[in-house]
Specification:
Blueprint lengths: L1 E6 L3 H12 L2 E5 L2 E4 L3 H15 L8 E6 L23
Antiparallel strand pairs: 1-3, 1-4, 2-3
């Protein structure tokens, strides 16, 4: 399993990225997706980040990809926000 977390300041770009990740996995927190991974899926996600999203990042944006052993995950509560898109207005 992979966890992908992101911190993207642009609302439109953040929404596009979250919709992109929904094709491969599910949202477990506002900016964190869980994805059942294979090498092919990981390559697809990385290629899309590099070709479609990275060039639009600001200096404050980041995406982190973690490979996780599902047997070692401890979870409390029901922390899913699959249908929620967050828009921060400053």
């Amino acid at each position: 399993m992979m966890l992908i977390s992101y911190d993207i300041s642009d609302d439109k770009l953040r929404t596009q990225f979250s919709k992109h990740l929904k094709k491969y996995g599910y949202r477990i927190q506002y900016s964190v997706f869980a994805i059942r991974n294979s090498e092919r899926v990981l390559r697809l996600i990385q290629a899309e980040i590099e070709t479609r999203f990275a060039k639009r990042f600001s200096d404050a944006d980041s995406i982190m990809i973690y490979e996780v052993n599902e047997d070692k995950i401890i979870s409390y509560g029901y922390a899913t926000h699959e249908d929620d898109d967050i828009i921060v207005v400053t």
